[in-house]
Design a protein that fits this description.
This protein has 394 residues and is α/β, with parallel strands linked by helices. Helices cover 41% and strands 15% of the residues. The chain folds into 2 domains: 52-153 and 308-363, Response regulator (Rossmann fold, 3-Layer(aba) Sandwich), CATH 3.40.50.2300; 155-286, Response regulator (Rossmann fold), CATH 3.40.50. Helix 2 runs parallel beside helix 11 (309-324), helix 5 packs parallel to helix 6 (191-209) and helix 8 packs parallel to helix 9.
């Protein structure tokens, strides 16, 4: 009986050891082996027989983004590309969703004007994993090394031109008088707004420091003067509060530096309804929107900084087609393209927090009542119909 029990126990032990040795448990992956994920992005862009360009604009509320989207679409299509254009309605999640759909639909290149330049890092990593090239258009995309190129205007110079116009118009270098100024700057999540502000404030600061310019509201910092989403209504409301608080009857306002045309429209409305002075206030802007062109012609707005959107899109399309051909363009793109406008290649100034992004920069120009015909109408950017109404030329 005892011997039987021993034999039985030995048999159980042998069977247990055998089963343990034959276990089907998968060994742990080695530390240097990549882990599999539940889903992975497939590169649909190499052999699908199409060339697809995705264009993501921030919204349709500003006239200029409609024009940019239209120019880019037309010119990429002329080069044989399939083009997807989306407008994000100033919503970050919408833009991220649009970009994911473009990647899934086989985009080879994404041309992106970011709603928030710091919010796209994750989706751009997805694009890079799918071998999609990224061009940041007009607004630098921040905090990612997935951006390949940046195409824009010299945004610092935009602010400089606005400030120089105020300096010349008020004759600050010769006059002994002090003049009053207020600032209406741009969207705090738009990286370009910081460049506009810095160019303007750096140029005007010496006159503020020496007392030639006075800011009665004392609001001069970027964030305290910023305008969410470049909103005309927000700009109007803020300037109305300033006028009611700091400009009683008899206190003169000489200039309002507005970062762009939509904020300038708001400032113009505030001046019309709440400014008690009788002088014409110098009012700056940027973009050359139709409503603002009317205001310049009618003496309500003093100037705007014009950026030839066709030129920006021409550079972007040339850059995009060069990338699609397998090249890594640098300054040679400018030499080979022989554009009839000036463009510089910059590899030192536009750091997005992760890397310096190679940039193609165009030159903005000042538009006033004196040169508006030559620069905007004679060039065909705008036209007039038989009733004299201004419209965007095709």
């Amino acid at each position: 009986m005892l011997n039987r029990l021993k034999i039985y126990l030995i048999t159980i032990i042998i069977i247990s050891l055998f089963l343990s040795g034959c276990s089907s448990k998968t060994p742990s992956p080695k530390a240097n082996e990549p882990k599999e994920t539940e889903s992975s992005i497939v590169d649909n862009h190499s052999n699908d027989g199409r060339t697809v360009v995705g264009i993501s604009m921030p919204d349709e509320l500003l006239e200029r983004w409609n024009r940019d989207g239209s120019y880019l679409k037309d010119q990429f299509e002329k080069n044989g590309c399939d083009v997807i254009v989306k407008f994000a309605n100033n919503l970050i999640d919408t833009q991220i969703g649009d970009l994911r759909k473009m990647i899934a639909e086989g985009a080879d290149i994404l041309v992106i004007t970011a709603v928030d330049g710091a919010a796209l890092s994750s989706v751009l990593e997805e694009a890079r994993a799918a071998n999609v090239k990224i061009i940041a258009y007009d607004r630098l995309i921040m905090n990612t090394d997935a951006v390949d190129y940046y195409v824009s205007f010299d945004n610092y110079m935009v602010g400089v031109l606005q400030a120089e116009y105020i300096i010349d118009s008020l004759d600050l270098d010769s006059s002994q008088d002090s003049e009053n100024i207020e600032f209406v700057t741009g969207d705090p999540v738009d990286n370009n707004a910081r460049f506009f502000y810095k160019g303007a404030y750096d140029t005007l600061k010496p006159y503020i420091d020496n007392g030639k310019l006075i800011v009665p509201s004392t609001q001069t910092g970027f964030y305290e003067t910023s305008t969410a989403q470049w909103s005309t209504d927000i700009a109007q409301q803020r300037l109305q509060i300033i006028l009611n608080s700091y400009y009683p009857k008899g206190t003169r306002l000489d200039a309002v530096l507005c970062a762009n045309d939509s904020t300038a429209l708001g400032a113009a409305k505030a001046l019309e309804s709440n400014y008690l002075g009788t002088n014409t206030v110098i009012l700056t802007g940027q973009d050359g929107d139709i409503a603002n062109i009317y205001n310049i012609i009618n003496g309500i707005q003093s100037m705007t900084v014009y950026k030839a959107l066709q030129e920006e899109s021409i550079v972007t399309v040339s850059l995009g087609m060069s990338i699609l051909s397998g090249r890594n363009p640098t300054s040679d793109l400018i030499d080979e393209s022989k554009w009839d406008f000036e463009c510089s290649y910059n590899i030192k100034d536009y750091n997005n927090g992760t890397k310096v992004v190679p940039s193609y920069l165009l030159n903005p120009i000042t538009i006033t009542a004196e040169n508006i015909e030559k620069e905007l109408f004679d060039t065909g950017y705008y036209s007039r119909n038989s009733a004299g109404l201004i419209y965007a030329a095709d």
